What does this fold into?
Amino acid sequence: MAAGSVVLGIGGLVVSSAVLLDALKLPVASIAVFGLACATALTTELVSKNDKHSRRVAVVLRQMLSVLFRSTVLVAAGTAATLLFLFLTGVSSWRHQPQAEDSMCLGIFVSSLAIVLPAAGQRHTHNSWSRLITEKSSSGSDGALFWVLVGFWSSMLVYLLDWNSSWQEWPLPTMMATSVCLLLSVAIGQRSREKPMHSE
It folds into this structure.
């Protein structure tokens, strides 16, 4: 559902702003976004099933555990890939503990935005990863993972500026850019869905 992606994108921006204003610590912010991603993914799956059986408490609890387990695995894999990329490219260093911790929090944040919600409802397909990158998902986004990666990559240009502003501190620009790009993926997905209707 598009609403889920919008909520997640806006949530990412709000959390990023809270970190910028020192109202929220980075580890807490990353966990908050992960929790929001799990909640929206669970809502997406429950709403897609309108039968009475899916509304039973036991079924909902089983769905919650399934979403939490799947989301944890996906985010852990995404965080590991993010850390590997940052260390190999020299953007971050494992020898500098505060920077490494911030990079891990960023990995959790970005992975929660890019993977958890778009993957909802796709776990039974054999080509889930290719669909996750390129195709429209049940979250209403269009290639959400691709656009979040675009935001991740483009935000690196901000660190090259010598403005010495507080909002340039690692990893705030990346958090904000990935959140904006998630919202952009929703806008593109909605527009592509409207085109066939207008053509008719």
Notes: Residues 123-128, 135-140 have pLDDT under 50 and may be disordered.
